[in-house]
Specification:
The chain is α/β, with parallel strands linked by helices. The protein is built from six helices and eleven strands. The strands form two sheets. A nine-stranded mixed β-sheet has the order 2-1-3-4-11-10-9-6-7, covered by helices on one side.
Length: 262
């Protein structure tokens, strides 16, 4: 074989190798997650476990379809500044604001106050008061609109939720009102409205069955704009049939991408 042919083969091999390496780099970049999420949930959710299990399946599919990564934690032991620095979004799926160490509380407060990442909270995040021998976390009460848990509809109720801020990104493709088939709507010592930006509220006159457990003005989706972090609380998060509701899934998805964005 002539030196000329050998030289051409060498050039060709080098070119093919560069194409291969370049393709692998592009492929690796395409597979890199858009952002990372930590999901905090109760390890033993009791009656809430079916919701947690269904939410996990749905979230994992959303992450696969939308190219973001998730880790799950089942208590607050791992929460430090260094731990939270790995994540652009904290989802408090169904975990109360107690049983947190002082270290975890301080790290989470900085995460929210300094806008180090976003937060989406559900259901138990507003379980504020003295529970299971734990004192209330005052900072978290302020974060949630200066509220304290008072009561709940233990027998559950069907109700209509009305959207109040249709222009908020979390309310994209959400109708003006929608029905929640089954939830144990909480009441608080006061409406959080004076301290938060309300996106949606429940119409207590639509409770079925009828109940006396009401609070009048009753927000169920809101954000606290006094904190640097993008944050949204969505009360509904008890029953797995919520994931049969396209509106709820849209709200959940909107919240994830809005709160994860800078």
């Amino acid at each position: 074989m002539s030196k000329k042919i050998l030289k051409l083969l060498c050039i060709f091999s080098t070119a093919m190798a560069m194409i291969f390496i370049g393709t692998n780099k592009i492929s690796a970049q395409e597979k890199a997650p858009r952002f990372k999420v930590v999901v905090m949930e109760e390890a033993n959710g009791g009656i809430h476990q079916p919701y947690i299990d269904t939410a996990n399946i749905w979230l994992k599919q959303l992450a696969a379809d939308s190219n973001f990564a998730m880790d799950f934690i089942y208590d607050a032991q791992k929460i430090t500044d260094d731990f939270l620095a790995n994540y652009q979004l904290f989802i408090q799926l169904n975990y109360p604001p107690y049983r947190w160490s002082d270290t975890a509380k301080a790290a989470f407060e900085r995460y929210i106050t300094e806008g180090r990442g976003g937060w989406v909270g559900f259901h138990h995040a507003s379980l504020l008061g003295e529970f299971d021998g734990y004192a209330m976390w005052p900072w978290f009460s302020k974060f949630m609109g200066d509220i304290v848990w008072k009561n709940y509809i233990a027998g559950f109720a069907k109700a209509t939720v009305n959207v109040e801020d249709k222009n908020h990104p979390c309310m994209k493709d959400i109708p003006a009102s929608f029905i929640v088939q089954k939830d144990e709507f909480y009441t608080y010592n006061q409406s959080p409205r004076a301290n938060v930006h309300v996106m949606a509220s429940v119409d207590e006159s639509t409770y079925s069955p009828v109940t006396d457990i009401k609070m009048g003005d009753h927000p169920v989706v809101w954000t606290n704009e006094h904190f640097k972090a993008r944050n949204i609380y969505i009360f509904m998060g008890h029953h797995p049939n919520l994931f049969e509701n396209e509106v709820y899934k849209t709200l959940f998805k909107n919240a994830v991408f809005w709160a994860a964005a800078k």
